[in-house]
Known about the structure:
The protein is α/β, with parallel strands linked by helices. The protein has helices at residues 34-38, 40-51, 68-80, 136-147, 164-172, 184-188, and strands at residues 20-21, 31-32, 61-65, 83-89, 97-103, 109-115, 124-132, 151-160, 175-176.
Amino acid sequence: MDLCHVSATREKGWYLALMAPNIKGPNYAWLDPSRLYCHPQGLQDCLTDLLQPFQGDPIDMVAGIDAMGFILGAAAAATLQKGFLAIRKAGHLCVQTLAQPYTDYSGREKVMEVRTDAISPGLRILLVDQWIETGGTMQAAIQLVERLGGVVAGVAAICIEDSEGGRWIQERYKCTHCIPPNLQPCFNRHQ
């Protein structure tokens, strides 16, 4: 699908066809959604699908997770007319931070940080990431928000895989993603 084509039906998830498969090997994610962000209608429809379940919900701020969650999160914040908070990998913020160790989708131990002056007790945060594979990165973001007294208003991602971590998140928080139920098994198996 080219970057000018818009599906005639525009059913939920039509824009998933814009994503590109991994051609570089096992050190990369199996699918790259960044091409979707280049397509104006695809990005808009993706945001509409992600944010629809939160219409009318009290959301004070949107937080995106380093790095690809920044794109989708900032776009969601602009759409909702809310502020945007970047939750970063350790070592990138030059202000007072709170840190949370986690294990990412590749099994590597990492640390996530958030500035301590952005979240006040009771602030309702919508957490956004591009993809939730094992759930470790999102769980670290959730812990950071809650340790600062914030409330996780919801979790949004293009895909939340049916993994142990993905299920843990979906059982505890209001979640939304763009994968139609009939395609979810394919995404879980990275096909």
